[in-house]
Design brief:
This protein is of the alpha/beta class and 288 residues long. It has helices at 44-51, 64-85, 103-111, 122-130, 140-143, 165-175, 192-197, 218-228, 250-270; strands spanning 18-24, 27-31, 38-39, 93-97, 114-119, 135-137, 150-156, 176-187, 214-215, 231-238, 275-281. It has one domain (18-281): Vaccinia Virus protein VP39 (Rossmann fold, 3-Layer(aba) Sandwich), CATH 3.40.50.150.
Length: 288
Amino acid sequence: MTSAYIEECPIGCTGPVEATAIVLPEGPLSRCPGCGQLVSRCSEERYQTSMSEFDDPRGTLPSPDSAERRFKRSRKCLLNIARMLNKPDHEIRLLDVGCSTGFFLSVADQMGFVAEGVEPAPLAAQAACAAGLRVHQGLLEDLSLSGNTFDAVTLFEVVEHVKHPLPLLKECYRIIKPGGLLVIGTGNTASWTASVMNADWEYFHIAKHGGHISFFNPVSINRLAERTGFRVVSLKTNSVRFFEKGDCSPVVYRTAKIVAELLNGPSKLFGKGHDMLVFLQRPLLYAV
């Protein structure tokens, strides 16, 4: 049997991970009994192959029908960053790690942020640069950016692709100014969506979401923050889903969607939404 790419807790908990009842084509997801982190049983070869889909000049640009929604979401996040830092937009230096072709960066530029990005996929990085954005091609840990430089660093849909998130967050800590922010957007396996859908949740499937190998929850995010020197200042979740489109009849799907929309408010209140947005702060008074 081919060995799994991840065989221990990515958050650094000791002890073996345990097989779960969430069975995917690569095998059952494994769970850390200490923090609840879930990890894929896929091989390194399968992971690397799936990640190649991101080396595309279009990158992760939204479709025309979702561009406005994504613009509003990006703008809201940037407004929150400015509010938490208590700085005007033009004084905030921001780094978007895993920026792809730079949609979020372009919104930040429009708002006046001093924004740049990091993107490992060469074609996506080249496309972002060709569009006039400031993007470094490569992995953040290999770029040797200056320490204490950025007011905010963002990691949107990045940590679920990473085998070793601890070194990544330690590098983020190093380059963020004391008092600065790290913003992480990822899925929430403690959500009602994950509880109801289990293996049917397409977020778990590497064939549908290339590179998804490590799956977080509020406990594991808090432990990751603690072990890298950050302090969690805000953790919010939203969105509920019970069926993927096409997995049931149109009538059942529409009914389930209505119920899910009614539960969006409670999911935010109880931290049970499947989209998780976390604001972490580098403390002012000490460093790791």
